[in-house]
Amino acid sequence: MLKRSLTVALALFAILFLITACSNGASGNEQTAEPAPKDETDNEKKTESVSKQVQLPQESLQKKDSNDSVEVLQGVLNQIGYDIDTTGTYDDVTTWAVTDYQIQQDNLPVTGVYDDATKDALKQSLENNASIEPGSGLEKSGKNSDAINNPHDILVLVNKDHALPEGFEPINLVVPDVRFPFEDFLPKKQMRQVAATAMEDMFRAADNAGLELYAQSGYRSYDRQDAIFAANVREHGEKAANNVSARPGESEHQTGLTMDVTSPDINFKLTVAFGKTDEGKWLKKHAAEYGFIIRYPKGKEDITQYQYEPWHLRYVGEEAATDIMEQGITLEEYLG
To answer: Where are the stretches annotated Disordered (predicted)?
Structure first.
C-alpha cells in the first residue's frame, strides 16, 4: 500500500514539474516576442545630457571681445556646423558666423552680436541636434578689405574706403515711435528694429529732461543716396559735395542704423548750430547710454573725412558707444 502511494506521489510530482516547465517556456517566448516598451524619458535624458555638456555664455558678446566665453561660443558654433578657430577673440569670422546663424533663424534680430535671443536659439539648436549650413544666410567674407561683406553687423564700418553693396537693404526696417517735423510717411523715417527701439528709449529720456528732440532722416537706399550726391555735385561741385555728403554705397544711412536729429531751436535744420542747443549738449553726454555715438565729431575730420555733424547719430550698441564716447574717438579708431 505504501509502495503504491509513493508511486502515485512521484507521478503527480512529475506532472507538476512538466506543467511548470512549459509555463516558464511560454513566458520566455512571450518576453522575446513582445519586448518591454522603450522608456519615454530617453530623449529627455539625452537632451539634459547635451545641456549639461555645453554651458552657453550668459553675458552678451560682440566684436572685439576677447575672453573664455568667446572661446566657448566659438566651440558651440563649430558644434552646429561651422568651422572657425577657437581663439577666444570675437573677430570678423565669429561675427560672420553669428550673423549667418541669426539670418537662418525665424524672428531673430540680425546684429552679429551674441545676445539673450541668440543664446536661446543656440540652446534650442543644440537640444534638437540641429545642423546649420554655413553661408546659406550670409556668404563668408573674402579678403577684399574695401568691400563690406557683412553689412548686417551693428559695428559695420561704412566710409569712403568701405562701401556697402548696391543691392543691400537692411532687415526689419521699422518707423520708430518718435517725433518727426513732418507727418507723411517717407522711407527716411525708417531704422532697423534694434536701433529704432534704442532711439525710442533715448527720446523718452530726453522728454523727461524737458527737451524737444526730433528725428529728421534715417534710412536711405543706394539709389536715393545717388540722387542726393548728384544734386550736391551740381550745386557745390564734386570736391565740396564729397565733404558734406556721401557717394552711393558710402553712406551710413543705407545701414538703417543712423538717424539725423534736430530741434525747434534751429528750425529743424541739420546744422552745426545743433551742437550748441540744449538737445545737442544732452545727446553728447547721454547718447552712449542708449547705444548711439556722434559719428562725425568735431576735430576728427581728418579721420572721418566728413565735416563735424553733431546731428548725425549712429547706433553701435551700448558697449561700443560707451567706449567711443568716453575716449573721444571715432568708429574708425575704435575698430582699428
So the answer is: 27-68
296: closest CA among 275, 278, 281, 277? 275
Q: Is pLDDT above 90 for 187?
A: yes
Residue 19 has pLDDT above 70, yes or no: no
d(CA 31, CA 257): 67
Q: Nearest CA to 111 among 198, 205, 186? A: 198
All domains of the chain in start order, with CATH: 56-127 (1.10.101.10), 173-335 (3.30.1380.10)
Question: What are the grid coordinates assigned to 176, written together?
Answer: 520708430
Which residues pair with residue 89 across a beta bridge? 66
Report the distance separating Cα 196 and Cα 202, nearest Å. 10
Per-residue model confidence (pLDDT) at position 140: 87
Checking 220-228 for CB contacts under 8 A at 24+ apart, the result is 220/187, 220/188, 220/251, 220/253, 220/254, 221/169, 221/187, 221/254, 222/164, 222/166, 222/167, 222/168, 222/248, 222/249, 222/254, 223/248, 224/187, 224/188, 225/249, 225/251, 225/253, 225/254
- Rounded-to-integer distance, Cα 110 and Cα 138, Å: 11
Q: At what angle do helices 68-79 and 116-127 cross, to 10 degrees?
A: 40
Tell me the CB-side half-sphere exposure of residue 131, using CA atoms within 13 A.
Answer: 1
pLDDT (0 to 100) of residue 243: 82
Neighbours of 121 (CB within 10 A): 18
- Return d(Cα 76, Cα 78) in angstroms, integer: 5
CB 290 within 8 A of CB 201: yes
> In the beta sheet, which residues pair with residue 159?
162
What's the pLDDT at 230? 96
Q: What is the pLDDT of residue 146?
A: 58
Amino acid 274 reads F
Which amino acid, residue 251?
S
Integer angstrom CA distances of residue 65 from 28, 69, 93, 106, 187: 63, 9, 13, 26, 34
